[in-house]
Protein 1
Amino acid sequence: MYINGTSREQLNLFDNKLDDIISDNNPVRFIDAYVDKLNLSQLGFNNSGTKEGKGRPPYAPEVMLKIYIYGYLNRIRSSRKLETECGRNTELIWLTGKLAPDFKTIADFRKDNRAAIKKLFREFLKLCHKLELLSFRCVAVDGTKQRAINHLDNIYRKESMDQISARIHDKIEKYLEELEGNDRAEEAEYDFISKNLVDKLSKLKKKKEKIDIIKQMFTENPELEIYFAEDCDSRYMKDNNRINAGYNCQTAVDEKNKLIIAQDVTNESNDLHQINSMMNNITDVKKELNIEEKTIVVADAGYFEEREIVEAVKNEHFEIYVSHPRDSQAQKTKVKEKEGKVPAKGFHKDDFTYDKKNDIFECPAGKILIKEGNGYIEKSSGTYKIKYNCRDCKACNHRSLCTNDKSGRSIKVTEFFCEITTFREKCNSDLGIKLLSKRKEIVEHPFGTIKHHWGYRQFMQKGFEKVSSEFSFIAFIYDLKRVMNIVEFNKLMAAI
């Protein structure tokens, strides 16, 4: 004997209410209630569908937004898949009241409401603050790379354009020769091959036209070195030892419940110039929520850029701690002994003591390094640097542990050396070490959920503005999911 389902031919005297197909504590009820409480017109949402006065009425923005929120929460981002789910997914049928917009209407809603969708992230933070889920005592900042819709085959370098053009030209000539040969042969024997060649030739000619346009772009823009054909705003990004076209996504995560309180997207390949930008974003959020307490900001060595650090320290509303690359254990394990460099077990820059009063460095062997000139601007970085040289290295018994340079050991420091030294001492204090060790457990949770659990490793949109809006929405969805996991359903419903 087995459990039997309801017969498909069974007649019902009365249909059940639509509301009966969803349990009383189903999360979609919160999505429905939350969107209904939002003032969408104030946020900037507009109707999606046919224009006013033409054809049938448009779908309400509330319905379209509910579809997108439900989709991203359940790892359904494609507008075509959302269209399908609207017709068969019980929860979406309840959420939309049996409405099923087509994929183009769903896609147009996202396209037409980018700015408004971006505002949802901060709007939801107001509810998080009301529920006392945010502390703003300690915030961890980190970045991750997300792939853009731009395959490596569609990235073009200025110096390689002539080679690409020549290869295409050679292939076209080859196919033309084959077609000419086929024309002279029997039609029946080469009918299939001829059709295939014509197809290939047509594609190659289109590609040649595309290459000619890109070559013209390089000619008209001398400063342009690389062109990303599918997503022009994306850039090369290194992630897990792989190079892809993508974006650098930044988040600031609150320690209390690991909620994202600030986010941003940039196409810079590293995090060196992001700390002050993220602090400004946090400041804007604190102003909106009327929070005046000082906030501790922690970040890893990827954010350590001296000019940025010096500027950030001046901000009275924050106390920042950023790991120095040389203080990071990961960096220490990468030290290798190479010819012409300081030996792995030798004297390194941090082993030298600076005497601020006399403006000199003293090496571990007691030798003095004296300032050379008034400094210089380093061409590669544009940074002002000062050089200190030791003139007493020849007779030193520790020379083999210090340098292989014939002129003796030298040390280069930036103009911010004293400020950075003080900052490093603060970060290496007991409190600093404790805070920096806590950073990873705070900030890795969102990226683990977004990239590994949900699989959101690539953007669905192209272009900086669209990508920025999409990541803001993903951050909102993460916070929404997190809140629904940590707050009881009844309390959540009561809050709105």
Protein 2
Amino acid sequence: ALGKYGLAKSIVIVLDNKDKIAAMMRMVRKMDPNYHHGAAERYLGAFHTKIPFPKGDLVRSKKYFEASIRRAPNYLATRVLMAQMLAPKLKDRALFKAHLDFVMAAPLDIIPGMEPEHAIEKRKAEALLDDIDILFAKE
């Protein structure tokens, strides 16, 4: 919550609290690595797309996202977040498309009880796919 709040308000808040946020996520990962479908690794994947500021650590980010997906391959939010935050920085159109295509093809009940959340992730995936040529414009 602190990280999301910071990103909504100012990157300065995130930077001021980055060590605290990372320590909390490492503790969650240690205590219960499967918590909420690999949430700590998902968070750390997103975190490292920005930290160290401004370019991030994309190798670490990818490692954490991949670990979260291994823990919960059918949790669609991780795939959308990886496509949205990491793939453009890596300039990896294939990674972007593969994860979003997976989301679009997945049935809403791929994890029973997650249908509303997965419906939202499908809408996000569709919007991102609509922007693929903008996000991965030829340079």
Protein 3
Amino acid sequence: VKGVLPWPVDGAVVSFFGRQKHPTFETYIQRKGIEILVNEGSTIKAVMAGNVVYADWLKGYGLVVIVDHLNGYFSLYAHASKLLAKVGEHVDAGQAIGETGDTGMTGDSTLYFELREGAEPVDPLQWLAKR
């Protein structure tokens, strides 16, 4: 599925995976995911089928959904304004699991998206379909 996963939301990537220079503090940080700028109220969709293992508030991330894809991969969706999925629920690829909004965490309506192989973050842009 590398390079063909559906996008969790429609929007422009404004923060990329990997080592990045922080625009305000002029220091380097290691980003474990990407941020996608979206319209407030956009639907967040699961990128692969799996089971919801976390759906709640998480310090520094706001409202979060984590999906275990049962193949060694996990996806994390953060800065949601509303959760539509519950822990223990099975979700299909493309199923709505939340909504975006200005949560006050970032100052914009963005979705933070992470993809992990086990405990290791991987670059989501290598897995998402090219646009």
